[in-house]
Each structure stands twice: as C-alpha cells, then as structure tokens.
Amino acid sequence: MENKSTGDLGQELMNQPNLDAYIRDNQAQFSDCSVIDLLLQLFDRKSFSKAELARHAGISEVYLHQVFSGRRKPSRDRLVCICVGLEATLEETQRLLKQAGYAPLYPRRKRESIIAHGIVHRTPLGQINDKLFAENEKTLF
User: Fold this and answer.
1) Predicted TM-score of the model (pTM)
2) Same domain, 21 and 4
3) Count: domains in the chain
4) 12 backbone dihedrals φ, ψ, rounded to 5°
5) Domain check: are 117 and 60 in the same one?
6) Where are the beta strands (DSSP E) in the chain?
7) Could you give the angle at the alpha carbon of 85 between the alpha carbons of 117 and 7, nearest 5°?
8) How many Å apart are CA 3 and CA 80, to the nearest integer?
9) CA triplet 121, 45, 74: central angle to 5 degrees?
10) Confidence band (pLDDT; 50, 70, 90) for 126?
11) CA dihedral sign, ordered 121, 123, 125, 128
C-alpha cells in the first residue's frame, strides 16, 4: 500500500462524511511510533556510537541516553540538535518534531529557515549555530 501524504489524508478526512469509514480505510496510514521509536530507527541506520552522536548533537552522553531510554523529553531545540547529529532528512526531522508535540520548522521564520537549510545540506551543528549567531538569531545551544 502506498503512503498517502498528510495533505491527502487531511483532504480525504474533510471529504469523508463517515469517520468510521475514514479510519477503517486509512488504518495503515496512521502513525503510532513514539519519538523514541523514531529516534531508534534513525540511529540504527547509522554506523556511529551514541557517544559520537552526542558529540555531533552537542549534548552530553548522559542526556542522550536519558532521551533514548525515555527518562527525558528533549526540548524542541535539543530534538533538532539530535536530528542534525543523526543526519536526519528534513522530512524525518519534521516528523519527529510533530510526533513529540512540537511545531515543525517554519520557513517563514529566518531562524527556522537557517536550521532547515542546514539540515537539508547536512551542515554540521556548529556551523548552523555560527550562522544563527551571525544573523542575530537564537542558537540551538
């Protein structure tokens, strides 16, 4: 079965008079992965350790292990740092942000455009922060 875009699902939901039929027809489309599950999926694709991920993400190993174990919920900026460290795509980052209950990166905001551009172009976190600082925007850490 082909994955439907969020826009397609939203349109179908608004056009479907029967909610039960919508739910039945789209059961496979619903996301039931937790933030931790999504992070683990991304991490499992990488060939580096959690210690290396912590360095790439600009966070401590202890904090990272607490996030992965579910004992800590990262802030929006910290979750973005982890995504940068994981070399997640923009789509993966947006999905993680939404799943965690945070707003996705919004390109009408300069700060978020800088971050999104860095994610798309796999810019190291330090360089993203340098650009944010140069543009008088709040850095990620």
Assistant:
1) 0.81
2) yes
3) 2
4) -60, -40
5) yes
6) none
7) 50
8) 25
9) 70
10) very high
11) negative
